[in-house]
Design goal:
Elements: H1 3-24, H2 46-54, H3 58-69, E1 72-77, E2 80-85, H4 88-96, E3 100-102, H5 106-112, H6 122-135, H7 138-159, E4 165-167, H8 168-185, H9 191-203, H10 218-246, H11 255-261, H12 273-303, H13 306-321, H14 331-335, H15 338-350, E5 356-361, E6 365-367, E7 370-372, E8 377-381, H16 383-386, H17 405-408, H18 429-446, E9 447-451, E10 458-460, E11 464-466, E12 471-476
Helix pairs in contact: 2-3, 5-10, 7-8, 7-18, 8-12, 9-10, 10-11, 10-12, 12-15, 12-18, 13-15
Length: 482
């Protein structure tokens, strides 16, 4: 039978199933639903949004809906009825409402695991977040600076020095993956880390996709990569457990050891192996994917922004002058990189690594005069406020001064949401800042670059990716003497 016919029959069958399910789940409330349409069964508006993301028109796609229906509208995304909310007030509602539970699309749940921290609530979420926060508290982060410094220098020596051209995105992904896997999971360089890095190249491919497991789809590739990565992490978990039992590791050794050490009042483990593996999957993605995107797009921006480049180079030259060339960076040095971090925040505003995310209504709930029925998804997107000209004048212009103390106070609360907000604000935000600042310090001190592609575009699939991975012409730079 022809493959296209098979796929068509499957789609019809799923459509019928969707109709039966949605009728069975028809909300009992009598309130006013938001304007809009749920679209075709199962598919809804998912394909339209994904096409817009891949064509780099997703912000326009969102704005067109806002222009048509207002800041609150209903649609169907990834097989579930959804309410799109936009604007600072909507962001605050999404991040702080106790009636909204964190929920990712079914595709994300299947790939990252049913018990990952993004899905957990209540005591389970607090325990796992607490374990993550313990490893990311300031006194621990101080200890990480030197190890990140060494990893960045090694990476630049091996993969950048002496090269006429490099492709930035894959190199940044490997650098940040090596850093996070070393610091949070104790993975030294070698075959295991290489295998895990290979799997994570494809784990995110199908996270925003219609969750139909068919051959040759991005969703199937993600499922296979996820299964392979989970086997590796499960092996690491068992090895760490054995080390703890032999006294060769402690709760503070790494994140896996900490999660394994969590016990209840009777001394029984609080987390199953599945929960630990799921948490590790999310942590690996959060710890390397977003930072690598930020670094890549900053390199892209600085290639054609000589004024910002010169100001940042001066900032880093001054830091070296105060301590001597060749010395590793310290926590105190990072505090002096104020302009560099403002530039990073501005890049996060313009190209947020996470386009948007989902919540789930745990009960019928009202917002702006409309009812969001229990069980429906709520979708928020950073671009709705990040690119709002009434909040950030000339939003398409790269302007780090927006994030100076005085300027930042002008924007309404919950306008800048690159790291989220509220109880689920990114627990690794400070770690990402350290990783970014250390990497930029050595890149700016050692190299200059030009873009190889005249067409300076990018797509979202679902994370932003520049054309061809951002190939650049590279030249060694003689840094200013201290």
């Amino acid at each position: 039978m022809d493959l296209s016919l098979v796929l068509a029959l499957v789609a019809v069958a799923l459509s019928v199933l969707f109709l039966l399910v949605t009728r069975a789940r028809k909300p009992s409330q009598r309130g006013k639903l938001p304007p809009g349409s749920l679209g075709l069964p199962v598919i809804g508006q998912s394909l339209g949004l994904l096409r817009a993301m891949r064509a780099n028109t997703a912000e326009r796609w969102i704005q067109d809906r806002v222009d048509r229906y207002g800041p609150v509208s209903k649609l169907s995304l990834f097989g579930a009825p959804t309410v799109l909310l936009t604007g600072p007030a909507a962001n605050k509602f999404v991040f702080f409402s106790t009636a909204l539970a964190s929920q990712q699309p079914r595709s994300v749940q299947r790939i990252l695991g049913e018990r990952n921290i993004l899905e957990l609530m209540g005591a389970d979420h607090k325990r796992i977040r607490g374990a993550l926060a313990e490893f990311l508290r300031p006194d621990m982060l101080r200890l990480y600076v030197g190890r990140i410094d060494a990893e960045v220098r090694r990476h630049l020596d091996e993969s950048w020095a002496g090269r006429a051209t490099v492709t930035v995105m894959p190199l940044m992904k490997r650098l940040t993956f090596d850093i996070i896997s070393l610091l949070l999971f104790g993975l030294e360089r070698g075959a295991v880390r290489d295998a895990l890095a290979g799997d994570f190249k494809h784990v995110m491919d199908g996270t925003w996709a219609v969750p139909v497991d068919l051959p040759f789809t991005a969703f199937r590739r993600s499922l296979k990569a996820s299964a392979s990565a989970r086997r590796v992490i499960a092996g690491i978990t068992r090895e760490t457990k054995a080390k703890l039992e032999r006294g060769e590791a402690s709760r503070s050794s790494d994140l896996i050891a900490c999660l394994l050490s969590l016990t209840d009042d009777s001394g029984a483990p609080l987390l199953s192996e599945e929960e630990i593996v799921d948490t590790a999957m999310v942590s690996l993605i959060a710890g390397h994917d977003t930072s690598s995107i930020l670094l890549t797009f900053l390199i892209r921006q600085l290639a054609d922004d000589p004024d910002t480049l010169a100001a940042m180079v001066h900032e880093h030259d001054e830091i070296v002058k105060s301590k001597g060339d060749g010395e590793a960076l310290t926590w105190e040095d990072l505090a002096k990189m104020k302009l560099t971090w403002r530039a990073a925040q501005e890049m996060l505003r313009m190209v947020p690594p996470v386009f948007g995310s989902f919540r789930r209504a745990t009960k019928d709930i009202e917002f702006d005069g409309y009812v969001i029925p229990k069980g429906w998804q709520v979708f928020w997107t950073a671009a709705a406020t990040h690119m709002d000209g009434s909040i950030y004048p000339e939003p398409d212009k790269f302007n780090p001064s927006r994030f100076e103390t005085q300027s930042a106070s002008v924007a309404p609360p919950c306008s800048f949401v690159a790291f989220g907000a509220g109880p689920r604000i990114c627990v690794g935000m400070e770690f990402a800042r350290i990783e970014t600042l250390v990497a930029l310090h050595y890149l700016l001190r050692r190299f200059r670059w030009k873009l190889c592609c005249k067409e300076n575009t990018f797509v979202r699939d679902p994370a932003p990716s520049p054309l061809h991975g951002l190939p650049i012409e590279l030249a060694e730079h003689k840094a200013a003497s201290p």
